[in-house]
């Protein structure tokens, strides 16, 4: 295969990966706290022995959108939404993870947990405990929790030290190898949930563009294959 064929194949592979990313975004357009993801294309040029060069495309680097999702009022005492930057910190079997999904509830032990049962951590990194049969529970904008006027803890908001290290591990869970820093001015809304920040219309449009781009690449490969076949036939006559 000639250089043009390899370059096109590398592009086709990248388009397939991007299609999976876009499809996942669209599938999660109604998922609480979901962050839209994008794929970054890069070009690599390698010099070869005859003095020419080979160009390859790659699309493995992913970027996560930090745009604010729509806030929906639910009235739930344990439904929390972040208005601005930051993530809730939760404890999973794999370690501490970040999330924007604030649909929490207390478990049988009194720990505040996510929909998947992971413990929500406070500003000091300890599990948030809610007393059984607690009365009116209030969560202030800074995350401070009080029951009938008595403070019982503070939900922490954190941001990755190095945003480049932020990696999606689940639909709404992220890891950050560089660690986390507290958000200096947290803004938490009780009785609200933040929706997905996916722009479904633009993602559908991008899906169509990817499909058309892939079809063009496939057409080129088929034409190139036919050209090479004809050239080989001419040489062996």
Structure description:
It is a single chain. This protein is of the alpha+beta class and about 240 residues long. The protein folds into 2 domains: about 5-65 and about 200-235, no CATH class; about 70-195, no CATH class. The protein has helices spanning about 5-25, 200-235, and strands at about 35-45, 55-65, 70-75, 80, 85-90, 95-100, 105, 110-115, 120, 135-140, 145, 150-155, 155-160, 165-170, 175, 180, 190, 190-195. Strands 5, 6, 9, 13 and 16 form a 5-stranded antiparallel β-sheet that branches. α1 (about 5-25) packs antiparallel against α2. The two termini are about 20 Å apart. The mean pLDDT is about 85.
Quick structural overview:
With 237 residues, this protein is of the alpha+beta class. It has 2 helices and 18 strands. The strands form 7 sheets. Strands 5, 6, 9, 13 and 16 form a 5-stranded antiparallel β-sheet that branches. Strands 10-11-12 form a 3-stranded antiparallel β-sheet, with no helix packed on it. A two-stranded antiparallel sheet has the order 1-2.
């Amino acid at each position: 295969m000639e250089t043009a064929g390899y370059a096109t194949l590398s592009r086709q592979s990248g388009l397939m990966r991007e299609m999976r990313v876009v499809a996942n975004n669209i599938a999660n357009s109604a998922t609480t706290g979901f962050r839209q993801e994008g794929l970054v294309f890069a070009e690599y040029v390698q010099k070869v022995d005859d003095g020419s060069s080979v160009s390859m495309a790659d699309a493995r680097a992913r970027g996560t959108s930090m745009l604010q999702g729509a806030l929906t009022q639910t009235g739930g005492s344990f439904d929390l939404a972040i208005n601005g930057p930051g993530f809730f910190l939760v404890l999973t079997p794999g370690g501490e993870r970040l999330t924007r999904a604030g649909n929490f509830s207390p478990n049988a032990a009194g720990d505040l947990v996510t929909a998947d049962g992971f413990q929500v951590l406070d500003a000091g990194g300890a599990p948030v405990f809610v007393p059984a049969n607690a009365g009116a529970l209030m969560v202030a904008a800074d995350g401070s929790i009080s029951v009938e006027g008595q403070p019982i803890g503070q939900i922490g908001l954190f941001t990755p030290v190095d945003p480049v290290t932020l990696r999606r591990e689940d639909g709404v869970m992220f890891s950050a190898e560089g660690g986390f820093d507290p958000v200096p001015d947290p803004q938490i809304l009780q009785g609200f949930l933040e929706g997905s920040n996916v722009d479904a219309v633009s993602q559908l449009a991008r899906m169509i563009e990817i499909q058309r781009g892939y079809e063009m690449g496939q057409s080129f490969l088929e034409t190139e294959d036919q050209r090479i076949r004809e050239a080989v036939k001419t040489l062996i006559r």
